[in-house]
Structure formats: structure tokens, C-alpha cells
Specification:
Layout (H helix, E strand, L loop, with lengths): L19 H9 L3 H11 L1 E4 L5 H8 L8 E6 L6 E2 L1 E5 L5 H24 L10 H10 L8 E5 L4 E5 L10 E6 L7 E3 L2 E6 L6 E5 L7 E5 L2 E6 L2 E11 L2 E4 L1 E7 L5
Antiparallel strand pairs: 1-11, 2-4, 3-6, 4-5, 5-15, 6-13, 7-11, 7-15, 8-14, 9-10, 9-13, 12-13
Helix pairs in contact: 1-4
């Protein structure tokens, strides 16, 4: 695996030297107790203002720079929906690396708590670098972080992101454009399928530019009358009716 170093470039869309601690403090300031409670109840929670408007626009502006990416996916070619996305290459842009590494310890604590509820042993180390080492042992060495772009009539079918044996159970998507101004439609969607019950659909809102949504990537535990059981979660994007909608997708495991 290539070294994921925070090499600061002269490009203004990268993270200036010394800015990483600001990202860390921003993540630390989140009320994680409340966020965890909402996540347990709904399967998702909004993390407001993870990025400033300038930072969000800067990341969105990376899309044409193919040197930053390892692959481009046209969704219609694979039956995923309409629109496209690109996988970032390692090393990640410093701003994005800082977000991923700052968020991970809080999410690992939640994920290990879910395993404990199911009577399973904790398997997510406190440091993201250590988790990526576990992915590497299984041959998962490629970046999964994505920059997604939707135009009019584009959408993303409900799905789960699985890239190998190691699948981290939580993801974060950060909206890089302003709904109602830069685009119309394009709501972030979730579905929840409980055993022997009809599927529940959810619209994630209010979701503004720079906000992140923390959501269940696969299954999550729910407490029932007879104890804990798992529900299957999927996510997608409703049809964009006008404008352009771009999103940063932060996945915490690597891909084969």
C-alpha cells in the first residue's frame, strides 16, 4: 500500500500546513453522545458543518483533476443508477485524510459497542492506521474514498458499499453543494429492512452544504422484545431535477 502521507502541495485546494488540528477539534466538538443515540434510533445522524463552504467548494473542485484519482465509475454502465464518481488515489488530499482519521476513533467506539450488544468481540482498533493494516493483510489496499457527481435526472440506487472481507459498518457522506441553490431534488435516502417486516424508507434532512451524514453502511443492531437483532440498511440518492450535486464519500475500509 502506498504511504498515505500528508504532503502539502502548493495547490490552494489542499489543506494548508497546520490546519489538520482544526479539523480534529471540529470533529471533537461534536456531541457524540447525542449523535450515537440518534444513530442507534434512526440508523443515521446529521453532523452539521464538518466543512466550511470554502472547503466544500475546494473539494468539489478536485473532480476534473484526474491525477488525484485511481478510477472513474459511470453508474449507468453498471446498473447503479445515473451519474458518476471517482475513487481517490493514495496519498489522499490532506484535508480529506484529516477528516477520515479524525472521525474514525469515534466511529470505531460506536462500532465496537454494536458488536458488544450482539455478543461479539470488539474488532476495530482505536487508530485508523491500525485498521488499514488489518485491511491490507486481506489484500484490501486501495482507497475507497469517492467524489460523486450528479446532474439533471441522475440518481443513485439503494445499495451497500462492500469492497472485501473487511467492511467498516459506518460511513460519512458530506454534501459539497447547496440544495435549493446549486441543485434541486437529490435527497439522500436510507432504507431499513427488519426481519419479517416491510421496508422502512427515510429521507435524510436537513442536509446542507458542508454537512455530513453519518450512516449505517450495512447492518446495525436493534433491541427487540427477545433481545438484540440486526436490520439491513441501504443508502442512495433521489433523482436530481436540476443543477449539479457533488458529495464526498468517506468509507473507512480499503478495497481489494
Amino acid at each position: 500500500m502506498k504511504a498515505d502521507t500528508q504532503t502539502v502541495s502548493d495547490n490552494t485546494i489542499d489543506l494548508p500546513a497546520g490546519e489538520a488540528p482544526k479539523i480534529s477539534r471540529r470533529v471533537h466538538a461534536i456531541d457524540w453522545t447525542q449523535a450515537s443515540e440518534t444513530l442507534n434510533e434512526e440508523g443515521w445522524v446529521i453532523l452539521p458543518k464538518l466543512l466550511t463552504a470554502k472547503e466544500a467548494s475546494s473539494i468539489a473542485g478536485m473532480y476534473p483533476d484526474n491525477a488525484r484519482f485511481r478510477n472513474r465509475i459511470v453508474m449507468a454502465a453498471h446498473g447503479f443508477g445515473r451519474g458518476e464518481y471517482k475513487y481517490f488515489s493514495y496519498p489522499l488530499p490532506p484535508l480529506i485524510k484529516a477528516l477520515r482519521s479524525s472521525l474514525y476513533p469515534y466511529l470505531a467506539s460506536i462500532a465496537n459497542g454494536w458488536l458488544d450488544r450482539l455478543g461479539k468481540t470488539a474488532e476495530y482498533p482505536a487508530a485508523h492506521a491500525d485498521y488499514l493494516k488489518n485491511c491490507s493483510v486481506s489484500g484490501q489496499v486501495n482507497s475507497t474514498l469517492t467524489l460523486l457527481q450528479y446532474g439533471p435526472n441522475d440518481y443513485n440506487c439503494l445499495h451497500q458499499d462492500i469492497h472485501g472481507n473487511h467492511v467498516f459498518p459506518l460511513q460519512v457522506a458530506i454534501l459539497l453543494d447547496e440544495p435549493g441553490k446549486d441543485f434541486e431534488g437529490g435527497q439522500f435516502l436510507m432504507s431499513e429492512q427488519r426481519p419479517r417486516m416491510q421496508t422502512r424508507g427515510m429521507v435524510v434532512e436537513p442536509f446542507r452544504k458542508g454537512d455530513g451524514v453519518l450512516f449505517t453502511a450495512g447492518n446495525r443492531p436493534v433491541r427487540g422484545i427477545k433481545g438484540e437483532y440486526q436490520v439491513k440498511m441501504r443508502h442512495g440518492v433521489n433523482r436530481v431535477t436540476s443543477g449539479r450535486r457533488r458529495t464526498l464519500g468517506i468509507i473507512f475500509h480499503d478495497a481489494v
